[in-house]
Amino acid sequence: MTLRIKKGDLDVAQALVDFVEAQALPGTGVSADAFWNGLSALAHEQGPKNRALLQKRETIQQQIDAWHIARKGQSHDAAAYQAFLQEIGYLVPEGSDFEVETANVDPEIADIPGPQLVVPITNARFALNAANARWGNLYDALYGTDALGDRPAGKGYDEARGARVIEWAKGFLDTSVPLQGGAKWAHVTAINAGASLEFVTSKGAITLADEAQYLGHMEADGWRGILLEKNRLKIEILVNPEVGPGRTDPAGIAAVNLESAVSAIMDCEDSVACVDAEDKVLAYSNWLGLMKRDLTEEVSKNGETFTRKLYDDATYTAPDGAAFTVKCRSLMLVRNVGHLMTNPAVLDRDGNEIGEGLMDALITVMIAMHDLKSEGGNSAKGSIYIVKPKMHGPEEVSFSDEIFTRVEDILGLPRNTVKMGIMDEERRTSANLKECIRSAKSRVAFINTGFLDRTGDEIHTSMEAGPFLCKGDMKSTPWIMSYEDRNVDIGLACGLKGKAQIGKGMWAMPDMMQAMLEQKIGHPKSGATCAWVPSPTAATLHAMHYHHVDVHAIQDELRAGGARGTLHDLLTIPLLEGENLSDETITREIENNAQGILGYVVRWVDQGVGCSKVLDINDIGLMEDRATCRISSQALSNWLHHGVVSEAQVMQAMQKMAGVVDRQNADDPLYTPMAPGFDGVAFQAACDLVFKGRLQPSGYTEPVLHARRLELKAI
């Protein structure tokens, strides 16, 4: 039973009270009374507004459903549809042109294009790894993955593979930081760094083709470092003839380090399973440790145990002799939950759970005050970065802006200390993106696209329009192309360049790095200043794309070229349109979706794991979170609703795939099999997501997952 304490007119779980008062508040200058009174004000003043906005979502959805039902069997009238959406307030009038006014933005957000990590804040090891992923060893990233076309064989060091890695990496240096006269890095036999940079070759001494790329040098404990730069991203060449590859390298180069995960989102939302006060305290505790820079984790690796902690910054000497600091940690953003969910950690005066997003806003910002009060911390500009997901349209973005204003007042922070990231992952936000940005024009520091959540909302919004295409086929339809282009173009037109990130979504296959190197270069080419990657290693490899592509130049070209994509295309519903699918195609689609749902949900419900690498039906590891679950469950719900498949077919597939998932998790000692009984809480949760998916608010998975996880925890 949860112990609770009265705090004014709030009823708060004791675990949260203890954390806030004993750990989080001390050092902020905010009193306990001010904090709890502030949270009460948020709950009782913003709470009714929150619920009204959620009711508006439901009302609009009912109107859209009714519109499609009334026209069932008729050809789609795009002009009438758009007029209808305007009439019900789904589409709002677009105002005059403007540019955002966001100020005090750190260079990692405003100026440096590069990879971005997203990690569950409840996993301290992952969080530390992400924060420390600002730099990555290119040799290691190439050697340990399939980036070269194959994977390392055996346990020992393969000298032939190592030679291939070094050759590949030096070829990359030839293009990113070319040497004078077309000389090759492979021919360098010594490097001399000081007021100038000199490379010794058999043909004499040379320097860089562009000497401005040389930033500085350092020497410490037998290591010499040379710091270079391309497209605002740094490269560190480490020389030590006594260590690793340096023993056989002609110039003693032991490592080529790339500035990698420039920023990292510490996630309290889609990648975690936080259903009560105990879970929330874990999330908040890890965020506190990051902000105070005292988070540690004991790690066992290769038979050794060590303590992982945040890296310290490095000191370099510029060519003019001046010392300067090089950041060794990613700039950290924190993602709060959206407006939908409540949490039993805090009850209002009427005994209702308060909005979890309200609680997140006050507590994560209060915790970040520890960083604002420290030297050399996360933000050099005195800003706190909050990513806000799952907002539907400008009114909800404006509400988030209002919440952060109230939080700043409660905590005594200057206005717009909190910077907002707008997740462009709901259809009503995509269709009104310009006005969404305007609603937070003094705070916005981030917009991005996310195919998975966005497609889940696409299906749910137009559920009654008819059966949808298979998931894979939707990626080449007009709406998704318009969505991706408009996000960049509207962001640029609203003046985000130099003030905010424009991001793209996740590479979900962490074991397929060669394919990532081939494909993900499309994100910087699209004008996006950041894109999500699933691991620090992937960040290092993806960083090379930002050396090959000058994103700032691309953005200038795009803005000069005018807008791409149209609202008409964005509102085109990706339906089957009478296409006849073969029985084989239908079975494959059902089983792929069922297997993905079960593989994710069984860990979420049984083990409280909100994001992990889950084997798909072909035993390929995919990064799964609630967004992937949302699209799969909505896709099956749509086909069920329109009779493409029967309940019996889907249940047969669910049971068959439960056996597949059981087999894939056979080596996990914490795993509870779903077959042959199919009566466990996790299997029931997966069935709820599919068979009751049409009834879930906006098609979200959270209500079902939270309820079933709480049910299991109560057993």
UniProtKB/TrEMBL annotation:
GO terms for molecular function: magnesium ion binding; malate synthase activity. Acetyl-CoA binds at V118, R125, F126, S271, R308, P534. Keywords: Cytoplasm, Glyoxylate bypass, Magnesium, Metal-binding, Oxidation, Transferase, Tricarboxylic acid cycle. One of its GO terms (cellular component) is cytosol. SUPFAM superfamilies: Malate synthase G (SSF51645). Residues 332-572 form the Malate synthase TIM barrel domain. Mg(2+) binds at E425, D453. The modification Cysteine sulfenic acid (-SOH) is found at C611. Glyoxylate binds at R335, E425, G450, F451, L452, D453. It catalyses: glyoxylate + acetyl-CoA + H2O = (S)-malate + CoA + H(+). The active site is at R335, D625. Gene3D superfamilies: Malate synthase, domain 3, Malate synthase, domain III. Residues 157-229 form the Malate synthase G alpha-beta insertion domain. Residues 16-71 form the Malate synthase N-terminal domain. Its cofactor is Mg(2+). Pathway: Carbohydrate metabolism; glyoxylate cycle; (S)-malate from isocitrate: step 2/2. Residues 585-667 form the Malate synthase C-terminal domain. GO terms for biological process: glyoxylate catabolic process; glyoxylate cycle; tricarboxylic acid cycle. It is found in: Cytoplasm. Its EC number is 2.3.3.9. Belongs to the malate synthase family. GlcB subfamily. Involved in the glycolate utilization. Catalyzes the condensation and subsequent hydrolysis of acetyl-coenzyme A (acetyl-CoA) and glyoxylate to form malate and CoA. Monomer. This is Malate synthase G. The gene is glcB.
